[in-house]
Amino acid sequence: DRGVLGPVPLGEPASLQAHPRSMITPTGGRSYFRWLQHEGHAGATPLGDVRPPRARHAQRRDYSAEEAEAIFEVAQGRARSGEWRDVLDITLLAVLRFTGARCAEVAGLQVDELDLARRNVSVLGKGSKRRSVPLPRRLVVVLERYLAEVRPLLPASSFLFPALRHGGAPTGRERSISTHFLRQVVVRYGEAAGVGGPHHPHRWRHTYATHLLRSGVDVVVVRDLMGHTSVATTSVYLHLLREDMRDGVEKAFP
Questions:
Q1: What are the residues whose beta carbons fall under 8 Å from the beta carbon of 38, sequence distance 6 or more?
Q2: Has residue 252 been placed in a domain?
Q3: 202 catalytic residue (yes or no)
Q4: Is the pLDDT of residue 97 over 50?
Q5: I need a surface site. Which of 68, 140, 196, 224 has the fewest CB within 10 A?
């Protein structure tokens, strides 16, 4: 407003052309008013309480049932060799797939947190909060093989998956595998199966949640299994259900 501010020099034309939209954003507007204040042309900025809009999260992507099975077929084929590293790999993938646990939660699992007799695992999540997650029979079978054939070969440790040296040999230190190691396993088998990426442990977590919701599990139950503090967090996975409904309507009414 020229009546309030008086004539205000806006800077060199070149500088304005370099950032043509910077003045119409909340951040750019606040910066401009700070300059006006510094030059004595304005008082308090009217944009003090204006906040920029929150960035929209990119749509999360799960593995389809066919993609998940393709990855597991590759892992199962390699595990038939009996090599301890291959058995370890499929165990890590199975825990990710059938518990929905976060990467760090899987890496930090303790042996005594498993109860195969009751088919249950106690997961230590964010904020040191524990949650109980049921284990499907398919996962129990994989874990039983790992505990019988592979775990005795590794150094004594409270961790279910002890740390490994570069190249795959046990370190002998009281430390769990790294999340980087777990990510490498996920990428290796995803690419070997020819499934489109990106491949990362959290994609398995997303797959777990969407599979439960598609199977009719209540969103509150899924929240507890995922270790979310709010149903609102779990609800971000519901977009796939809406896509399913849209596809169903289009198939019914071509």
A1: none
A2: no
A3: yes
A4: yes
A5: 196
> Do the Cβ atoms of 189 and 203 come closer than 8 Å?
no
Q: Annotated catalytic, 237?
A: yes
126 is catalytic: yes
The greatest distance separating any two alpha carbons of the chain, rounded to the nearest whole angstrom, comes to 83
Distances (CA, A) of 37 to 34, 44, 52, 78: 5, 8, 21, 68
How many angstroms separate the Cα of 119 from the Cα of each of 89, 115, 134, 137, 211? 21, 6, 6, 8, 20
Which of the residues 97, 102, 199, 211 is marked catalytic? Answer: 102
3-state helix vs strand vs coil in the chain, percent to 5: 55, 5, 35
What is the C-alpha separation between 99 and 204, in angstroms, rounded? 9
Residue 85 has pLDDT above 80, yes or no: yes
Our answer to whether residue 205 is catalytic in this structure is: yes
Answer yes or no: do 35 and 86 share one domain. no
Distance CA 34, CA 104 (A): 43
**Who's near 180: CB < 8 A, 6+ residues apart?**
none
- Can you give the residue range of the structural domain that contains 124? 65-198
Which phi and psi (to 5°) does residue 158 adopt? -75, -15
For the beta sheet containing 130-134, the strands, ordered from the edge strand earlier in sequence to the opposite edge, are 114-115, 120-124, 130-134
Residues 194 and 70 in one domain: yes
Which of 97, 199, 205, 211 is flagged as catalytic? 205
* 102-143: pLDDT as tens digits: 999 999 999 999 999 999 999 998 888 999 999 999 999 999
| Beta-sheet strands, E only, within the chain | 114-115, 120-124, 130-134
CB 36 within 8 A of CB 5: yes
